[in-house]
Amino acid sequence: MQTFQCAKCGNGVYFENSRCLACDSPLGFDPAQMTLETLERAEDGTFRRLSDANGPAVYCDNVHHSVCNWLTDGNDRNGLCVACDLNRTIPNLGEAGNVAAWATLERAKKRLVYSLMRFGLPLQGTAAVQRPLMFDFPRDATTGHLDGVITIDVNETDPVERERQRTQLEEGYRSVLGHMRHEVGHYYWMLLVDQSPHIDGFRALFGDERADYGAALGKHYASGPPPDWQADHVSSYASAHPWEDWSETWAHYLHMVDALETAEAVGMEPRAARFAPGSVWNFARQDVYRAVSFDDLVDRWLPLTVALNSINRSMGHADFYPFVISKVARSKLAFVHSVVRGAGGGTP
Asked: Which portions of the chain are predicted below pLDDT 50?
């Protein structure tokens, strides 16, 4: 994620901010420009961008619930931004705690949609697969994906419940954003891999997805992963079935790219690890979503994870990235990279 500056006072502001903490100017994220705009309120109550005194700015209607800081693009979405328009079901706002839970879900979903738009991936399906991406946020439901609809159980926003399930399922990592990245991987497998020229390459790396899915999951939950799963997969769950292997690998690829952009934006540059003190800095900033090769991404990702794992241990926390990327897993990540770069065509 990039960092931004308040256009009024120059203070550093961040993706989720709705106001500048220094000068209290209202802020709104413009998905068309991928910028966090500083706004001013006019006498008639409307907003204008400081970057363009004549440019109006309209917040998503969900600003009234304090769950969204995005601006609309003027299209007819019933007052919703491009990200909130993807919601099919939101939590029951009459239940105690559900507004806060929805805010947590939206923060994660906005990060996800930001990445998808940076990659230039379609949100409304393709000519071949005309199924838009949609989200359901019910309570006491099974988290998963079906024909373009991603369901995230509201209970996943409760850190106690999430940790209970992580421990019970022997997972090294579990987060709301991680769930969304995983489930959206199923959606893009349907759009970009199934019945496409990529399918043979997919099966060669991940296996034949036509294997009985229900039986594979049943075996995984009954017997656990194979003892040597780390040799071929990014996580133990990835070993359950080729579809899950793809989605886990997809999620890790999104983790990698977003974290690398954030690290560069805030000055935690992994390329500086072996840079001599006092030397002149000679690295230009790079667009990790578009301009960096897969090998360069991995060469920057591995030292960053080692550094952050060490910092977390120094603070007494679990590892930031508790995974090992084997040679086979790296090949699978490279395949995801190739599919994403081949499909991207939107906002750079």
From this structure: 279-281, 346-348
